[in-house]
Specification:
The chain has 120 residues and is mainly α. It contains six helices and two strands, in the order αααββααα. β1 and β2 form a beta hairpin. It starts with 6 loop residues before the first helix and ends in a 5-residue tail after the last helix.
Length: 120
């Protein structure tokens, strides 16, 4: 299990998920400001921690790294749901409660997904 994100880590991941390209520390920092005026080194440390935890990938460009999410927001959310199910003894009951709580549209998506790999 990769573990939950702290508040600042989640804010940084939101930035990375919201842009279509990899980002340098400076770019992430500018997306966080002015709501979160942070030091460059703080953002760099958060990105380094996210890399160490497996949440982001990075590649060296010149003297600076460019960061991008290791997985999409949707993939991470699905992984978190899987972790929650794995942590519970009675997954059948949890799934039944969940199934009763979904909307008609969500129910249709689940039915289509379960019908076969070539659908949905």
């Amino acid at each position: 299990m990769r573990g939950r994100l702290g508040e600042l880590e989640a804010a940084v991941m939101d930035v990375l998920w919201s842009v279509d390209a990899s980002c340098r520390v400076r770019e992430v920092r500018s997306h966080l400001a002015p709501a979160r005026p942070l030091a460059y080194t703080t953002v760099m440390t958060v990105l380094d921690n996210l890399h160490r935890k497996g949440w982001v990938r990075r590649e060296l460009e010149g003297r600076a790294y460019r960061y991008r999410p290791a997985a999409s927001r949707e993939e991470e959310t699905a992984r978190e749901l899987r972790d929650l199910l794995d942590a519970h003894e009675d997954t059948e009951t949890v799934l039944l409660h969940f199934a009763r709580s979904v909307s008609e549209r969500e129910s249709a998506v689940l039915r289509d997904a379960l019908a076969g790999p070539d659908r949905g």
